[in-house]
Write a structure and sequence with these properties.
heterodimer, A: 205 residues, mainly alpha, 9 helices, globular, B: 337 residues, alpha+beta, Jelly Rolls, Phage tail protein beta-alpha-beta fold, 3 domains, three-stranded mixed sheet, 7 helices
């Protein structure tokens, strides 16, 4: 059952270059325009459309701190709704939402864990748009795979994941922050190296 | 181990345990394995990402209904000061109307008894049509249902006790017998259609839902993780189509009665069918009322096959076999004598 689900992930490895979400672009842009114009229905629809994607995206950056992601996803949407007057209506909605949420999430996470150097980590990964596009394509694949399962199959997998999740949370409660810092730092350094490689300048340390 | 791929890795329960740090032995095993096979580092990383993301997605979907409700509450709260004044008078007027309606439609003492027929034999709960044509059935509550070929209908084991619930797979037309005390509910996948004294056609296959409402009123809901959400209320001649695979997921249109009637009468096969059932199917298929003067006729049987035939053509054949005459009183009432 599980292997069937994951088999589909494997099969789709080669289709990374053609993100399916691009087909939905005009529709998305339309909702975004209405959102900027202050339509509550559009706000609700945007939240509905992006909830799962952004939830998983947030978990990816905070290494599964689901409770933190949940709270801040709600706050993030209210935040952008309240400052909608200042938002540009002509943007790549998906990339904008993902990068803005990531930035805000990591900032707040750093504030909560009383880390001072988090902002430097975010700035290092300024160009996350490509990252966001790759993630969206990957997310769609996972979502499609989960949708092909029957409710019963899903429930079995769900239980297993959630159970493992809670076990993990108990086991790792003490070093979660350490591990996440490590992950963030690790990613930032990789990214910096790539940047440096691209621009072909001298590496000074 | 040679040629390890992402899907091989994520197919292994021990690898999933490793991803979620669930089992110490598995974590140790895979940590050592990764250290010993640095050439697979990229594949392991990708597989780990996939497993974790799938888990988070499940968490997200579990959290989503509550999150949507929280956001709705926030929206209501923030827009309340503006709306309260404008909503007050219509709301009061609506409340008065509602009270009047409740009083007017208060159940009469007679109606308090559920008007379900007394069923002596255990009721049939599963209906499956493999006849090759449209087939009609009378449900235990005397509602009438027409099933398209290949369609199955499973009644809830408690059918008629507190609600009239059933699950549909395929396409069916329902002519619901009025019973205000027992809701008539048809589930199709995650969708639930509740009828309020109604005739409607419903299709439920592979996550798709289509409802065409002929008369009365139906409510369509979607149930996810036990939380029900209202999708739509339909008015007569309105149709609703929900297709998750389509870009425009939910569409609401109006349709003409002729479309539905053509579907109902497309093919009817009677094979030694009691006349009472033949008449029920004709009534449902052509939206008519048939009165029959001679009650002994009901016990006779009839065989015949009709394909897209006009009502008069069908009645000609039926009455010829029964050696009777029919007469149209008006466009929807027929007498056979």
């Amino acid at each position: 059952m599980l292997s069937a689900l994951l088999y589909i992930f494997g099969l789709n490895q080669n289709t990374r270059e053609t993100p399916a979400w691009r087909c939905g672009m005009p529709d998305e842009r339309d909702i975004w325009m209405k959102f900027c114009a202050g339509e509550q229905a559009a706000f609700r629809e945007l939240y509905d459309t992006y909830y799962s994607r952004m939830f998983v995206w947030g978990c990816k950056w905070l290494d599964g701190d689901t409770a933190f992601v949940k709270d801040h996803l709600h706050d993030f949407f209210i935040y952008i709704w309240e400052k909608r007057a200042n938002l540009s209506s002509d943007i790549n909605v998906s990339a904008y939402l993902l990068t803005a949420f990531k930035r805000r999430l990591i900032e707040q996470w750093g504030r909560e864990k009383k880390l001072t150097d988090v902002s430097s980590l975010i700035n290092l990964s300024a160009d996350t748009r490509e990252d966001a596009d790759i993630f969206t394509a990957q997310f769609n694949r996972i979502q499609q795979a989960l949708q092909t399962l029957t409710p019963a199959q899903r429930e079995v997998i769900e239980l297993r994941f959630l159970q493992n999740m809670s076990l993990q949370q108990i086991a790792d409660a003490k070093n979660t922050s350490l591990r996440t810092v490590y992950n963030l730092t690790h990613r930032a350094i990789i990214q910096l190296r790539q940047e440096v490689g691209k621009k072909n300048i001298f590496f000074l340390w | 181990m040679a040629n390890i791929s992402v899907d091989q890795l994520i197919g292994q329960p021990s690898f999933i345990n490793y991803c979620f740090h669930a089992n110490e032995d598995d974590v140790n095993y895979w940590t050592n394995w990764v250290a010993a096979h640095p050439e697979y580092a990229a594949i392991v990383e990708e597989a780990t990402d996939m497993v974790k993301a799938a888990g988070w997605l499940l968490v997200a979907e579990k959290e989503k209904p509550a999150a949507m409700a929280k956001m709705d509450a926030w929206l209501l709260e923030t827009s309340a000061p503006v709306r309260r004044m404008r909503w007050y008078y219509p709301a009061a007027a609506a409340a008065v109307l509602l009270l009047a309606a409740v009083w007017y439609f208060r159940p009469s003492p007679v109606q308090k008894q559920p008007n379900l027929p007394v069923v002596a034999a255990p009721a049939k709960l599963y209906y499956h049509n493999t006849s090759g044509a449209m087939q009609g059935f009378v449900l235990p509550d005397s509602s009438y249902v027409l099933l398209e070929n290949g369609t199955s209908l499973q009644l809830d084991s408690a059918f008629g006790r507190s609600t009239r619930s059933m699950a549909l797979n395929g396409t069916a037309y329902f002519k619901v017998s009025p019973d205000p005390l027992h809701r008539f509910q048809v589930t199709g996948g995650s969708y639930m259609v509740t009828a309020l004294g109604t005739a409607f056609r419903m299709t439920a296959t592979q996550g798709k839902l289509q409802v065409l409402l002929e008369t009365g009123k139906v409510m369509v809901e979607n149930s996810q993780n036990g939380i029900r959400r209202l999708v739509a209320y339909l008015q007569p001649t309105e149709s609703l189509l929900i297709d998750p695979s389509h870009q425009n997921k939910q569409q609401q249109h109006t349709f003409t009665a002729a479309t539905l009637n053509a579907w109902k009468a497309q093919e009817m096969v009677f094979d030694h069918t009691p006349v009472s059932e033949v008449l029920l199917q004709l009534e449902a298929s052509y939206n008519i009322q048939i009165q029959i003067k001679d009650s002994t006729l009901q016990k006779e049987v009839f065989s015949g096959r009709f394909k897209n035939d006009a009502l008069s053509a069908v009645l000609d054949v039926l009455c010829f076999t029964l050696n009777k005459q029919y007469q149209f009183i008006d466009s929807t009432n027929v007498i056979i004598q």
